[in-house]
Amino acid sequence: MTDTGQLLASLNDPQRDATAHVDGPLLILAGAGSGKTRVLTHRAAALIQGGHAEPGQILCVTFTNKACGEMAERIDHLAGNSGVWVRTFHSFGLQMIRSGALGTYVDPGSTVLDDADQRQVIRDCMKSLDINSDQNPPRKMLGRIEAFKRKGQLPEDLDAERLELIEGFPIVDLYFAYQNTLQRNRSLDFGDLLLYPVRALAENPTILAAQQRRFKYVMVDEFQD
Questions:
Q1: Which tens digit of pLDDT belongs to each residue from 172-185?
Q2: What is the per-residue pLDDT across 108-158, written as a single tens digit (0 to 9) for each?
Q3: Distance from C-alpha of 6 to C-alpha of 165, rounded to nearest angstrom
Q4: Distance (Å, whole) CA 177 – CA 122
Q5: Phi then psi for 102, rounded to 5 degrees?
Q6: Can you give the three-state secondary structure of 84-130, one letter per residue?
Q7: CA–CA dist 214, 222 (Å, integer)
Q8: Which of 26, 90, 127, 148 is least surrounded by Cβ atoms within 10 Å, i.e. has the fewest?
């Protein structure tokens, strides 16, 4: 384990300032290879060694499993087998779902569908609506639905009259059919792993407060992606 003085001594001045930051939000804008992840991992270790947080009160989030594994290794190298939460956005969302932390927003026992299963569900929904899957590829339709989910929108949030038609059907009809099928089958797609936690945190103060009590520090790597 590296002590706090050694942690800071190994950084340049801007990195040291960011690593030593404790209270309040902090945004780091820097180019590729400039040490953003280095700052994040060093800051997590510094917060522990400075007595500002227990390891389990720190959440570090990134995008890929590879980046997640590398980040966890680097934090453990700096702070010992720390127990800091290091997750991808999707795995943390799934963990919230599985724990029951989202209450009635989603069934904790839901199955997460892989790409092939998602395509089969959308094909079945398209067939039920007489939407031609040759002219409207299922993968493309899933992409349209995923775009709504990235914006935090469920079908009931959409105005059908302002959306494009697919062979005479508003795309919202297909979204309704797809989402209803998932719920009926106790299933989730990858977009749901972010959509439901985000909605729950935004809409339910009790759920938000519980997560705020759980984590004193949340650090996000590459948030713009």
A1: 999 999 999 999 99
A2: 999 999 999 999 999 999 999 988 888 889 999 999 999 999 999 999 998
A3: 61
A4: 9
A5: -90, 5
A6: CEEEEHHHHHHHHHHHCCCHHHCCCCCEECCHHHHHHHHHHHHHHCC
A7: 23
A8: 127
